TrEMBL record:
The organism's taxonomic lineage, starting at the top: Eukaryota, Metazoa, Ecdysozoa, Arthropoda, Hexapoda
Designated gene of the protein: Dana\GF26481
Origin superkingdom: Eukaryota
Protein name as it appears in the record: Endonuclease/exonuclease/phosphatase domain-containing protein
Length: 128
C-alpha cells in the first residue's frame, strides 16, 4: 500500500495505490490488509478527493443490490469474498467503483488474463 497527497488550488487529492492479498489468503491476512486501508482512508483529510486504486483480486459481478450508490451493474463474474470486502470498504467511504458503472464490451472489462489465455477476470479497480 502506498499513498500520495497532492495539494491543488481548489481541493487536495489523496491517492491510495494497493496490491491486495489473494482470494486464498487467510481471513486474518485479509482483515489486516483491509484494516490498514480503512485506517489510511480515515486519516485522509476530510475535504480531500479520495482515489483508491489497485489490484484488489476482487470479483464484483453485476449484482449491485443495496450497493447502487457505489457500483453499477456492469461488473464481471460472480462476487467473491474479496469483492465483498472491497464493496464494504467503498460503501463505508462513499467511493464509486469504476469499471462497473457504464456498459462496455466484455473484452474491454477484463483486467487480468491467465498465462494460458483461457481465464479472464476483472480484478483491478479505480474507486473515487
Amino acid at each position: 500500500i502506498i499513498t500520495a497527497r497532492f495539494r491543488c488550488n481548489a481541493r487536495h487529492i489523496t491517492i491510495v495505490q494497493c496490491y491486495s492479498p489473494t482470494e486464498d489468503a487467510s481471513d486474518d491476512i485479509k482483515d489486516d490488509y483491509y484494516n490498514a486501508l480503512t485506517s489510511l482512508l480515515t486519516k485522509s483529510k476530510r475535504g480531500d478527493i479520495k482515489i483508491l486504486m489497485g489490484d484488489f483480486k476482487a470479483k464484483l459481478g453485476p449484482n449491485n443490490y443495496g450497493l447502487e450508490p457505489i457500483m453499477g451493474r456492469h461488473g464481471v463474474g460472480t462476487r467473491s469474498n474479496n469483492g465483498d470486502r472491497l464493496a464494504d470498504l467503498c460503501q463505508a467511504f462513499q467511493l464509486v467503483i469504476g469499471g462497473t458503472v457504464f456498459p462496455h464490451k466484455e473484452v474491454h472489462k477484463y483486467t487480468w488474463t491467465s498465462p494460458n489465455g483461457h481465464t479472464r477476470n476483472q480484478i483491478d479497480y479505480l474507486c473515487i
